[in-house]
Design brief:
Length: about 300
């Protein structure tokens, strides 16, 4: 799990009535990070701040959330929670936490008026622990659906999953919320399921995305963290087909806690594996919600 990285804590808020939620990843001090955004329909905030070449040296948390663009409001609650605890960059007049966020579209599954708010983000921080991470139809994965092409109403229940890969002292872990246009592939490259209405007309613009966090205990610059995020995107494309389409807002964050030395090639190979496994676990552990069947019901 992503909490295998020392110092990382994860918290969910799950709204089973509205069928939405959010997930926060709280990071230890001195964490560096960056991001890779692919596809034509992203929903993000603070991603420019953590790109290489910017003044911001690191970040304090990452938010994955449902609610489409409305869900970005949950980041305000994360900021407030961190500020109250003195976390953030000292700007003399205030401490400013850096909390990049990415959203997925889940308004078509439950109540379209139910969206994660600032209170959700705050509560997710309160719930964060370094213990086992609940997976499936929880947090940012609560209202997720995948295999939506060509009929979004005939997809399968997506969810949130996490996995880790270790080599000696090096750990690379991932967490992903799967709400993809495409289907998820198994370890042999075969579809876990197909859309239940293959004869339908396409109507899925802007309603899809897979969002993920790759974490490592390695020492990385922002430049190397961005390369690690790109490797995470490669893992996404190997586990979801098609991925990075103009109708998906695929976004992968990479964070590094800076504890061990590691070669970039090794980290990237581990990231590909971790993201792929996190995506598969996200859909395999998901339960049916809002009338959308789970992968387990297909067997």
């Amino acid at each position: 799990m992503i909490t295998r990285i020392e110092g990382i804590r994860v918290g969910h808020v799950t709204d089973l009535e509205g069928i939405t939620g959010c997930t926060v990843v709280l990071l230890p001090p001195e964490t560096t990070g960056s991001v890779d955004v692919k596809g034509g329909a992203p929903g993000t905030s603070e991603t420019d701040a953590i790109r290489p070449g910017t003044a911001v040296p690191g970040l304090h948390a990452v938010l994955l959330t449902g609610g489409s663009a409305f869900g970005l409001a949950a980041a305000t609650g994360v900021l407030r929670w961190l500020e109250e605890r003195g976390v953030g960059y000292d700007m003399k007049v205030a401490r400013i936490p850096i909390v990049p966020a990415a959203v997925l579209f889940d308004l078509g599954v439950g109540d379209p008026g139910a969206r994660p708010t600032a209170d959700y983000g705050y509560a997710a921080c309160d719930a964060a622990t370094d213990g086992p991470v609940q997976e499936g139809s929880v947090g940012a994965g609560t209202g997720a659906v995948f295999a939506k092409s060509p009929d979004p109403a005939a997809g399968w229940k997506g969810g949130l999953g996490t996995a880790s890969v270790e080599r000696g002292d090096i750990v690379v872990a991932a967490m992903a919320a799967v709400n993809a246009l495409g289907t998820v592939l198994d370890e042999e490259g075969n579809p876990l399921v197909e859309n239940r209405n293959p004869g339908a007309d396409a109507s899925w613009v802007g309603t899809n995305t897979t969002i993920a966090v790759v974490a490592t205990n390695a020492i990385l610059s922002k430049e190397r963290a961005q390369l690690l995020a790109q490797a995470g995107s490669e893992g996404l494309s190997l586990a979801v087909s098609p991925a990075h389409t103009m109708w998906d807002g695929d976004t992968v964050f990479a964070v590094a806690t800076g504890k061990v030395e590691a070669r970039q090639q090794v980290l990237e190979e581990m990231a590909v594996r971790a993201v792929g496994e996190a995506i598969r676990r996200g859909v395999r552990t998901a339960g049916s919600l809002g009338g959308v069947p789970s992968v387990g019901e297909a067997r």
